[in-house]
């Protein structure tokens, strides 16, 4: 099946991958930064008589961004399959930019009253719609521009770009917490963090406008994509889709509980904001390396070994790590403990991204990946931080996050062990 990039000369795959993932990185920076400043945002827009009530309302608004992600995944994912990857990625990026500007510039509850939280909730749902339609088209685009022997590494830039965004958000948090008094951080410091991401929006739009298209541009190719019956084709891959949903549920719980560690370190372990942000900075930085290394390994050793063995290691190490952190909270335990879990835990999901995308036909790839991803994220990512906060509150046990992470790790391990092997290197070995 011909594609636009076959006719676009010269084509620079590295530049196209960079352009796609830069946009993805900027979108995730805006989305994830909210979780880093959940305490300050809660006090700004959701004043309450209790600190717990304010934080829960703030996290509920963070979760509202997940409600519309399945809708965005379906709408923009199918749009990317029928019209093109580039238009879908441009649209999601523009929506995200408008939402982040709205949140960062909305006056506080004390200034405009009930209108403030309403505006923020609407903006968060718009962000969720945009991000729901971002991951599927971007991942499909990366797999389509990559040489078969390097698909794992190229697709690795999808999760790596998310971790780059989280690392940038944590770095901004460290700098702001070090240079601002607590009342300044609460008053406008978090707005500065959001606006830093907004400054990059024009650059991201420009980069995405230069991307070559990978969907067939001939009349015959376009007609074939227009006639695609997503439900019928997806039904033939129901087993892989079900396993992917389980793996993504496991991964998103791990991701958003990890992002919650900034709040957990401050509220539960009572460490300084600077150390809390530093833990997130180090953990997310290590996950960048882990994601790329996992992609490199998956191209050479196959997808399944890189999914199963690191996931098993995470299952074994999670509870002892939390025991250490809770009984000796400090820089050493937090940085080493979460650092080890971060780098090992990031290995399996790069291999999974490549496996799931390779297992889907091109003409449903964007829509199915986006929908499954968004449903898993909405169901489990949007509730992860609420569940952990609730568990900590009702049990009073600082080990509560470990229980939730262990459950997620078991589900992910079972599903990963059942996924098919799609790596070209393994297929060549089988044919030999």
Helix content: over 70%
By secondary-structure content and strand pairing, the structural class works out as: mainly alpha
**Low-confidence regions:** 6-10
**Main β-sheet, in a few words?**
none
Question: If classified by CATH, what would the architecture be?
Answer: Up-down Bundle
Tally of individual helices: 24
Number of domains: 1
Strand content: under 5%
What's the β-strand tally? 0
Overall mean pLDDT: 84
CATH class: Mainly Alpha
Family: Belongs to the major facilitator superfamily. Metabolite:H+ Symporter (MHS) family (TC 2.A.1.6) family.
Subcellular location: Cell membrane
Domain Major facilitator superfamily (MFS) profile: 16-423
Membrane topology: Multi-pass membrane protein
Overview of this protein structure:
With 432 residues, the chain is mostly helical. It has one domain (9-211, 221-426): MFS general substrate transporter like domains (Growth Hormone, Chain: A), CATH 1.20.1250. The protein has 24 helices and no strands. The chain has helices at residues 4-7, 13-36, 38-45, 51-67, 69-82, 85-105, 109-112, 115-132, 135-145, 151-155, 157-179, 182-199, 201-209, 219-226, 230-235, 238-259, 261-267, 273-301, 303-327, 331-345, 347-358, 362-395, 400-418, 424-431. Helix 5 runs antiparallel to helix 6, helix 6 runs antiparallel to helix 8 (115-132) and helix 19 (303-327) packs antiparallel against helix 23 (400-418). It starts with a helix and ends with a helix.
